[in-house]
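Hi U.,

Before I forget, here's the chain from the pilot set. I'm dumping it here mostly so it's searchable later in email.
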Amino acid sequence: MLNYIREAIMAPTTRSGINNNNNGQQDVFKDMGPPVSNESSPAPMRGYKVADNERTRKYGIGANSLEMLIAKANNKFPLPELHLYLATDGFEVSDDEYLNSLPAQTLFIVAGPDAVITTDADFEFEKMRQQSPLLKVADIFYEFVEQHPDKFRRMITDYEHQKQRRVLDNTKAHLSLKAEHVEWFEGGEERFHSKEEAMAMRAQTRVRGYYYKAKEELTRNPLYRQNAKARQVINSVLEQFRYLLIGCDYFSMMFNRRCGQKHDFLQQQQLDEEETDAGSLPSKRLRQVIKEYTKNNSILDEWSVSLCTDLGDFYCQGAYSENGNCCSKQHTINPYASRENLILFQVWNLDHQIELCRTILPALVASVEELITQPHLKCSLHNRRVVDISVLEYFLEIFSLKNLRLVHIVCHEKTTRSNRSNGRLLCPECHEYRIVQDLMDLQASSPTS
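Structure:
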């Protein structure tokens, strides 16, 4: 019960947009698709779904462009200024490239520019809350939680720990296919055939979010806007990031229990338990070539691992201040076990130990500025003239488990951290430089690029 209460109080709400003095700054994630030529044939018609924020009305609409989709949606939901938002995460869709990257029958929420979007997860949780009288007592406990946060966290932790043990004794966690566990797939996972496929997509979605965030922060930086050379370097970095992400399948294996490679901390966790208890999108063929090259050369093998056991148990890796892969509160969850656990898993965060926006991205921009303003600098390792920034190191810090820890929301500390990025400038002799350049050369050598 207290777990539900915690969710009722802490359930995330996604705001559709934030107005500020920076033109073009929006919480809008845009995927990178192929450039559209004026001479290209019209895109084929595709079916989509639109609904109001309360899900009181839902319509199917066919469209081949964002403009057509908005126009038809406006006929169903007349609004002075209609915007379309993804029902899954609340982010606005603002161009055809991103629209075309979405699967058919994607559900959009229609609302104004300043609306607070109710995501699918929020909507499902609210339905659960309304149907259970026990969850309505959250309002009664609100003042208690505000006045005694530490005591409340201990109560939640103890309850969750006991509940997880009970769930695993009588679970459907081992089931995989939709036909075997139909209720697990209701409310957002209907298009998937197995739990592993759905969880892999959830991992990819989180990693894509970091790419969009990095792109947004880098391209609105004054250096990018005012210096053509810096703009060229940063665009190249983003392109290399994208190729590396394709190579590791956007780290889809992080949440996939079928992945044979497990994170090192899982071995110790299980031992402890036994003791104690965009540019143009590469073609399909080129994407496959990139994946094969990345795998054959073991570029990202060390970090291409799963964070869960074969049954699907995830363990909190502990707060930043605990300085280790161990959670003192022993948080654990198995989202494969039930729909409820899958929803609760959304408040488990991937925590950047070296902070993304405060540390990594500013360090990347500083490296770019140093590269273009001081071209005669020498590499600290080989004493040769530098030619690039350490793209692979920045990539690992932004996207991989080298710098990410999976933590329960209670263990996700928002304090300022003192650790620094390990990014630097590279010369042609640096192994990291040669790895990334060889990967990018695949585009030139591939006949289908």
